[in-house]
Structure formats: C-alpha cells, structure tokens
C-alpha cells in the first residue's frame, strides 16, 4: 500500500507538474548569442518566463515557428538546428546539420524545415516533426563548384527561394514531394549576399555585393526570368566605407512603398513597390541596418551600424519625416513588433537588456535583463510568409 | 490513510485529466447557428476536436480572439457575449449584454472587447479577462434618437470605428481610458449598413443602403473628415433586385486593388486601392456575397446569394480571370483561409458540412459534419487588424 501511495504521489507530482495551459499567440524567443542561450518571453505580461541553454553558436541565429505556434526552430551559426517547445520550455530535438550555416525557413504547410548552409553549400530539408533529413539540394552551380547559400525564403506551394553567393544565381526549389525536390535556376549577378521575399510571397529580391543593383524574380511568373532593379543600389562608384552590409530582411513594405537601408550612406531609400523606382530619400543618423515597418505601415523604425548603433529613429510614412529619435541603449541589434504593432521590443546587446516601447506614445513600457541579446522572434511569424 | 489515498487518487484523475499541452496557432471555431453550438477545429489535423453548446441565437454570429489565441469571444444575435477557452473546450464566461446585437471587435492591446448593438443602439466595452462592463457609448445621434450600430472595426490606439444606420454617421471612439471613451463624429450618408477597415487599419469604409456610394474616413488623418467614393456603388437607378446586401467584410485588398461584390449584379468590381476608382469588372456566376482574397493576394474566392449559393468561383488576380468554378455543396455561407493560405475552409449550410480545399490544386482535402455551419473563424485573426 505504501508503495502504491508513493507511486501515486510521484504521478501526482510529475503528471500534474505539467506547465499550465496557455495560448501560444503572445510568445516569443530572444537569442542570447554570447552564452548560447535563449530567453522565452510573453508579450502580454511583457516579461521573460524561461531561459534555456545548450544551443551552441548563436551568432546570426534566426528562428521560425511551427504552424501551431508551439515549437521554435532555432538555426545556429554552427549548423545546429534545435527544436524548442515553447510550452514546456525544453529542447525537444537537436541536430547538427552542417558545419557552417546561416538561417532557415519553414514550408507553407508547416511540414518541412529547411536550413541554408555555407559549408558544404546547399540547403537541407527536414521533417518538422522529427527533424529527420528528407532531402538536400547541393549548391553545385558548376561541376565540382559549390556555393554558399544565402537569403533563403519560403514561397507558396512548399517552394523555397535562395541565392548562391559564389554561383551568382537565384534558385527556387519545389518540395511538393519533400524527398525529391525540383530546382529551377535564374541568373542574379555578382555575389548575392542576402535575399527577401515580399510579404505577399510574390517577389524574391537578392542584394548584390559584387556589383550595384538588386536581382528580382517574380515567383508568380518565374518563366519571365529574373531582372535587375535599383541599378544604383550598392556601394557605388565611390566605394563608400560600409560598416555592415544591411540585411535584406531589414527592408520593409509600407503603404505601397519599400523602405530600405542605403548602403554606406546615412539615408533610408524609399522605392515604389510597383515599379521599384526610387521615390525619395530620408536623411537619418547613421548607416541603417534594419528598416522595419510597424505592421500597419504607419511607422518605420530604423537602427544603425557602429558607431551609431545606440540610436533608433522612427519615420512617419505619412509625412516621410523622422518623428522621433530614441536612445534605448548600447548596441541596438534588433527590433520586433507585436503582431498588431502596439509594442516594439528592442535588443540592446551591450547593455544586456531588452527594452519594450509603446509605439503610439514612444514611452518605455518595460525592460528586462538578457545576456547580450540579439534577434527577437515572436510566434506570430508562424502565420506569415517570408520570415 | 485510505482517505488521503482517495484524495490523492481524485487529485490525480482531475488534476491530470487536464487537456494535453498544445499550441493555439492552428485552431479555429465554426458557428453552427441552427443549434446554438460551435465546433472547435484544428487546421493541422484538418478535423474538429470539440463541440460546445449553450450559445443562444447564433445567426450572424462572429468571433474575435484574445491576443494569446487561447480565448474566443463569440458575439450572438441575441446580445450574448460568450468567452470560450479553446484549450479546455469550455465556456468560461457569458453575459447577455443587450437584447439585439450584431458582432464585435477586440482592441489592439487585447484588453477590451467591444460589442455593437441594434437595441438599444450603441457600443459597449468589456474587460477581456472578466467580461466586466467598462463603459458604453449610446448611439444617440440627436437628442432622444438612438441608432442601430453596424460595421464595428478596431483601429490602432484602442480606437474603434463604426457606423450609425439611422444616424447616417461614422463614429470613432477612443478607449485609451477604457472607462471614459471619447468619440468623434463624421457624416457618412443615408443608412450605412456595414463597414470595414482596410487590413493596414488606415481607411474606414461604410457602405450605404439608402443611396449609392461609399463613405470613407482616413483614420490616420480624421481631421480631414469623411468623403464619398465609388459614387455608383449601390443598387443604382434601376433598383436591381438584391437577394442579399453583401457584407463589406466580404471586400478584399489584393495586389493594390480592392475586390468587391457588385450589388444586384453578377460581377466582382475591381477598384484601385490608392484612388478608389474602378479599374475593372469581372463577370461571375451570381450576386457575390463574400469576395475573399487568399492571404498572398494571388487568388480571390467568391460565393453567391441565393439561387446561386451552391457555387464558388476563384479569380486569379494576375490575369483577372475566373480560373476555377467549384460546387462544394448546398448553401455556401462562408470561407476562411489558413494564415499562410494553403487551405480554405468552406461552410455548406444545407449539406451540414465543412469542406476543406487545397488552394493550389483545388483538390478537396478534407470534410466533416457540422450542423448548419455558417461562419468559420481561425485564431490567426488575433494578430490582425479589422477582424
């Protein structure tokens, strides 16, 4: 009897020690890259609720979410792909899928997680449930020549677009049959270094490091091939000193225009989202890194490369003016909006802090300590394309 | 000892009988209006997982979600406001907030749920946690004259826009201080019968029953006042027979254009989203009711009023052509896309079925029985404006 009693007691403690039920729509994950940790956060309470270690090298780490919002897939710089349960705050699977990787994506149906790799160059597709390897596409752009892969983005129909830095091409791989991907190739230009897909999933853009201009592919009409836009976008004839090549993921579309960081200049460029011609330039305090629109498109928030990385500026898209200049902390690395845009969360790496602002009043409405925080990723990304 | 044992056993059975942990990002709710029930569904498994009764009159019922995706707020026709826990599949709160109501909305910060009422005309604000009444705005447009309220929509800054059918006005109430709302009034026209806010939360549009045209308010610049657009939109000089006034919520924005149901005609109108001028008309099989864009804007799905309510047509926005005609079942009432658009769920009231289609192949990939299903609402609405 005592034994049964003890067993029951254990069952009670373990079975019922399960975390309380909760929705996952207001959760998120902050990368703490120096320590290989992540902090899980709740945007309703505006506070962290768990911290988990064991992720390896998290520099440039990024995150995508399962379609139910329960699991985060963390892509590490060392090729680690880690599946985190946001409810139990535990790592449920982890694979070292390559030696040198940067980022990944999840298919439209949520069943396939794809990682992009530098070495060996290519992409690999994993079962989102088990992290079993399903297939890979080596980035062999010429016999025996493999390219670093950059700018991976999900498209409709379980397709993925990405760019080959060494190959100078855009590839689109269709994983409708996840074990037998089919790939189409399009010319891009010299050394594409990053890519993005527009929020509607239609246009894939690859920024070029080796020359000026941006390669564009209309993925609704790929048979028309890629074309070049923004002929002057890049480092230009003068070869300006560039402190950090801005991510293309730092571009935004708002109110029909694209807002993008000028390279090497203290400017945000405004480009028509329909014909991709420049329609304006906004002077800002530094070389922009992320130029991120609030979900409604009314505001665009901008952070900067060193030595101006303590500033954040807010552009009002209605007037095209900077309406607020903030100094949230030291080394501002990333900004993430809540899905309806009432809050923005900002990582200040060298202050070991995450700061929370009300986007209507610009008041600081919260903050907490995190070790050298970089990327911030909310579960609302699960429902969006191109994240 | 036996007593402690029994208590432990009960604790084990009850405490541990809690529903399993799960994400809420892939859940939804189907209204079964004839029986006052709702069915809870899972879009990953593509099946229902619970059915709950006790909702009263669910004709024209609509649903919004808490920001964590855990709770659904169901607005019934009889003024019932019911809070449902999507995880435990239980009703957690229910108030009868008026005698005659139609729909509601939730604030940007997720803290205030607002219901719109016919009788007595006005809106009421409730605490999203407790459903405690916080404040109300009676729709008294002239001394002693109260109007039915229609077209309630959430705006940024915890504001709500709505239209007064009898008062012929658009009102915007600011609930920044939830117990002391402040209201601005704008002229609309004769008998506004419904309203919508554009997906970016910027423009509020009110359709007019008493005259042709649509009233538009730029909520980013409300000081400019309302103006009239689409002067020919309505029943027209000929006073065509109209089988059902289409909901304005059935309008869509896709690729810079608005797609909207012509009134009394077998046409979908295409209107520029920037200057609101008509740019095209697409001939369809019946009088459109809902004209709903797939989240990427590539497709627009259309259903029809009686006697054509067995058809659904799909318009390709790239070519402006109907590319597929489906006959999903009898009395198609509503359609809801999964957040990334790979599936659409369709209610066929008179077949007592919900049908699930793959939007790329148009294949039927699932179906289940529901009693006279009408509205379908997925939790992804929690992260969006104007739902």
Automatic annotation (TrEMBL), chains A, B:
Keywords: Signal. It comes from Accumulibacter regalis. SUPFAM superfamilies: C-terminal (heme d1) domain of cytochrome cd1-nitrite reductase. This is Cytochrome d1 heme region. CDD domains: 8prop_hemeD1_NirF (cd20778). Residues 1-17 form the signal peptide. It comes from the Bacteria. PROSITE patterns: PROKAR_LIPOPROTEIN (PS51257). Transmembrane segments: none annotated.
């Amino acid at each position: 009897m005592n034994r049964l009693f003890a067993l029951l007691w254990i069952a009670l403690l373990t079975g019922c020690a399960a975390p309380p039920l909760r929705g996952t729509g207001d959760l998120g994950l902050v990368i703490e890259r120096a320590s290989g940790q992540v902090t899980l956060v709740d945007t309703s309470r505006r506070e962290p609720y768990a911290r988990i270690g064991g992720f390896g090298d998290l520099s440039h780490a990024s995150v995508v979410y399962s379609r139910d919002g329960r699991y985060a897939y963390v892509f590490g710089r060392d090729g680690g792909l880690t599946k985190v349960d946001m409810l139990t705050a535990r790592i449920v699977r982890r694979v070292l899928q390559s030696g040198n990787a940067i980022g990944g994506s999840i298919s439209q149906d949520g069943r396939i997680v794809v990682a992009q790799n530098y070495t060996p160059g290519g992409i690999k597709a994993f079962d989102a449930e088990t992290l079993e390897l399903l297939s890979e596409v080596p980035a062999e752009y010429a016999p025996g020549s493999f390219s670093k892969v950059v700018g991976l983005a999900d498209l409709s129909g379980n397709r993925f677009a990405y760019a080959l830095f060494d190959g100078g091409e855009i590839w689109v791989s269709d994983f409708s049959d996840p074990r037998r991907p089919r790939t189409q190739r399009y010319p891009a230009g010299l050394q594409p270094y990053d890519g993005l897909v527009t929020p509607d999933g239609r246009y894939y853009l690859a920024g070029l490091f080796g020359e000026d201009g941006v390669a564009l592919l209309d993925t609704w009409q790929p048979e028309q091939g890629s074309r070049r836009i923004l002929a002057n976008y890049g480092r230009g004839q003068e070869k300006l000193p560039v402190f950090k090549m801005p991510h293309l993921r730092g571009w935004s579309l708002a109110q029909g225009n694209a807002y993008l960081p000028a390279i090497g200049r203290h400017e945000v460029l405004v480009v028509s989202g329909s014909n991709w011609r420049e329609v304006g330039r906004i002077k800002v305090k530094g070389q922009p890194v992320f130029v991120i629109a609030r979900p409604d498109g009314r505001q665009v928030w901008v952070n900067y490369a060193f030595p101006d990385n303590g500033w954040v500026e807010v552009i009002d898209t209605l007037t095209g003016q900077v309406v607020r200049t903030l100094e949230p902390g030291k080394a501002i690395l990333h900004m993430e909006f809540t899905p309806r845009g009432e809050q923005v969360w900002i990582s200040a790496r060298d202050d070991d802090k995450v700061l929370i602002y009300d986007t209507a009043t610009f008041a600081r409405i919260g903050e907490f300590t995190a070790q050298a925080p970089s990327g911030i990723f909310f579960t609302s990304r699960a429902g969006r394309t191109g994240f």
